[in-house]
Specification:
The complex is a heterodimer of chains A (about 400) and B (about 290). Chain A contains 13 helices and seven strands. Chain A is α/β, with parallel strands linked by helices and about 400 residues long. Chain B has two domains: about 220 residues, P-loop containing nucleotide triphosphate hydrolases (Rossmann fold, 3-Layer(aba) Sandwich); about 45 residues. Classes of the chains: A alpha/beta (about 400), B alpha/beta (about 290).
Chain lengths: ~400, ~290
């Protein structure tokens, strides 16, 4: 004889059953383990530091002033590569020739040449070139106006291109020395770094990869859960649940909680494996939990509309790809516009970056948590309503 | 007087413009089996969905164990068992795991899955995944699942559909046992013999309308022909004659026929449930 049963007990039973089913689905179990291993491996393969110096080709400076000038530029994060002539420099920046560094000298070999590269030479990837006139030092010292040609590869970002004029002024100052008789302007603008100055401590590829890694875990959670929900709907086992003391609220809560548990569990495994829980672990787990609940909402929608594995996969991608954009934006800075802030996943990614990259705490991340919570409620509510409607029409 | 386990009073239900249930009324007492007979699309499954709280009636009132079915009362749900027409089982789980999971939803700490599976002839397949079960085995597991909470009311939607004669007989025996235990049973079927064998009363439903609710015996008496067909060997070969029991002198005619030296067979000519169904609704039970 049955006895009164609590909602918590019913929800617990359904979650247990769902996790059992999930673990027995060989495809998802395999993909989940594979993803975890691959993602962790990729993370550790990525560099954990950044080469912050930019190679700049220089021609026309005599040996006398060059050394002093170079020391200055290296302090500014620029690495000078000396070329014999402006023509050589132009051809290398234009991509018509390759520059090879050997024993301090640079050998330029045109692309259409049969000449082999010097033994033991290292390729110099020069995308910016500064061709100084032969009389640059003398003219600068004399306070005369002179012209420096700047060659820039089209792929170099605008902000770096525009900084070249400042660099030329710096070099002129360094070449001319303290007693410069001419009026060399300081940079027009003075930049003040807000927050933590990351100069010399740039965001590493590992740090940039973290949000994407987390999203892949959530993606797997989404596919796994939507697959389970779709199966439950298609095989109508959900109707068998609803003629027991389990209410539709119990079933939906169990689906959401199970999905969140799965997502957070996998995320914690990954975060531990990549040693990312050292700072503010509770805050990171809270962010992950909200993210997982948000994704559970999309899983409910995908599971309700998907009819089989392929349509489930299709709808999963349709919902998840937009959510992954902010994570890609972190990996490839400068690729996305301001509109990505309107995406539900933005506060999650923003929060993660703040905590893991900039070492922020609860106070700084609170606005992101609030926004994420609001999105979480909205997406989960949509998922709940869509799945409820689907179940009621079975 | 015993309270009915199921009380349905003039309920209606529509799927959009289609009226699936048109004001049906009936009751089922504890320990009684009511055979719900009708062709596909007659409204049988819709009625079960209403009574199990899956659908809300458009009008009318229905109670199960004294509780309004629209109340979504877990106490009531805990005392019913539903055997669906579709085999909605968890395929990646074994038969025993399916039973234990559903038992946990009823708050049962311990489910004697082995006993339930033994009762439906699946004891030796208890730990096999349902995905490996045949259609008949799944149907038997469905029946076992229905009984997991020892329900007071059973809703059985085509419980022997797709089963071989031996398995069907085993399930019928189980249904009888449950009724003997005191469970009220609403059994939908379009198998006339099954309904006749199992049901204390039968209800004819077609196009959402209830045409009759009575015992098979009464329906046969009311609608069948009261006659006896006698076959006897005669000098010229085999002779057959029908004696109407409603005619004057029927007793003498019957005695003469039975006393005939060449008597071979005597058959009563009572109507079958199917014939009565066709007579009342104008259509057959199949399809």
């Amino acid at each position: 004889m049955s006895r009164p049963v609590s909602h918590a007990s019913v929800i617990g039973s359904i979650i247990k059953k769902d996790l059992q089913e999930y673990s027995r689905d060989r495809l998802w179990a395999f993909l989940t383990v594979l993803l975890l291993v691959v993602m962790i491996a990729i993370f550790w393969v990525l560099p954990d530091s950044v080469d912050e110096s930019i190679p700049v080709g220089v021609s026309g400076l005599g040996d006398a002033g060059t050394l002093a000038a170079l020391e200055t530029t290296e302090e500014e994060g620029l690495r000078a590569v000396l070329f014999g002539s402006s023509a050589q420099l132009r051809s290398v920046v234009a991509g018509d020739a390759d520059a090879w560094k050997t024993n301090g000298a640079v050998v330029v070999i045109p692309n259409d040449s049969d000449v082999e590269k010097p033994a033991g030479a290292e390729k110099a990837n020069v995308e910016i070139g500064l061709a100084f006139p032969e009389d640059f030092i003398a003219a600068t010292a004399a306070g005369q106006k002179t012209t420096v040609e700047v060659f820039v590869d089209a792929r170099v970002p605008d902000e770096i291109q525009s900084s070249m004029s400042s660099l030329v002024r710096e070099l002129a100052f360094a070449v001319a020395g303290d007693d410069l008789p001419v009026d060399i302007q300081e940079p027009d603008e003075v930049y003040t770094v807000l927050g933590e100055d990351r100069a010399g401590n740039q965001v590493t590829p590992q740090e940039s990869f973290l949000p994407l890694l987390v999203f892949f875990v959530l993606l797997m959670e989404m596919f796994g859960m939507s697959s389970l929900i779709a199966r439950e709907v298609q095989s109508r086992t959900v109707t068998a649940l609803l003629v027991t003391p389990a209410t539709i609220g119990d079933v939906l809560t169990a689906k959401g909680a199970g999905g969140a548990l799965l997502g957070v569990g996998q995320a914690v495994i990954i975060l531990v494996a990549i040693n990312a829980l050292g700072h503010q672990p509770l805050l990171i787990i809270t962010l992950m939990l909200l993210g997982a609940i948000m994704v559970s909402g999309t899983a409910m929608v995908a599971g309700s509309v998907g009819r089989d594995f392929m349509t489930n996969l299709l709808f999963g991608f349709v919902f998840m790809v937009p959510l992954m954009i902010p994570a890609f934006a972190v990996l490839f800075p400068g690729t996305a516009s301001g509109w990505i802030q309107a995406l539900p996943s933005y506060p999650l990614v923003q929060g993660l970056v703040k905590v893991s990259t900039y070492g922020d705490g609860w106070a700084e991340v609170l606005p992101d948590l609030a926004a994420l919570f609001a999105w979480c409620v909205a997406l989960f509510a949509i998922g709940w309503l869509v799945l409820k409607r689907k179940v009621e029409t079975l | 007087m015993t309270e009915p386990a199921m009380k349905v009073d003039n309920i209606t239900f529509s799927y959009g413009d289609l009226e699936a249930v048109k004001g049906i009324t009936f009751e089922v007492a504890p320990g009684e089996i009511l055979g719900f007979l009708g062709p596909n699309g007659a409204g049988k499954s819709t009625t079960i969905k209403i009574l199990t709280g899956q659908l809300t009636p458009k009008s009318g009132k229905a109670q199960v164990l004294g509780v309004d079915v629209t109340a979504d009362d877990p106490e009531m749900q805990a005392q019913i068992g539903v055997c669906f027409e579709e085999k909605n089982l968890y395929e990646s789980m074994s038969g025993a795991e399916n039973l234990r999971f559903f038992g946990s939803l009823f708050g049962l700490k311990h489910v004697d899955a082995d006993d339930l599976l033994r009762r439906v002839g699946l004891a030796d397949r208890a730990n096999d995944r349902v995905a490996k079960y045949s259609k008949g085995m799944r149907q038997r597991l469905m029946m076992a699942r229905t009984l997991v909470n020892t329900p007071k009311v059973l809703f059985l939607d085509e419980p022997t559909d797709g089963l071989d004669p031996v398995s069907s007989q085993a399930i019928r025996k189980l249904i009888k046992q449950e009724a003997d235990r005191g469970a009220a049973v609403l059994l939908t079927t379009h198998d006339m013999n099954e309904a006749d064998e199992l049901s204390d009363r039968v209800a004819f439903i077609n196009e959402g309308k209830l045409y009759a609710v009575d015992t098979s015996e009464n329906l046969k008496l009311q609608h069948g022909r009261r006659s006896v067909r006698v076959r006897a060997r005669d000098e010229g070969g085999i002779k057959e004659r029908t004696v109407s029991l409603d005619e004057a002198g029927a007793g003498d005619a019957l005695r003469a026929a039975v006393g005939s030296p060449g008597l071979m067979t005597i058959h009563t000519e009572e109507a079958s449930l199917e014939a009565i169904f066709i007579e009342m609704t104008g259509r057959g039970l199949e399809g």
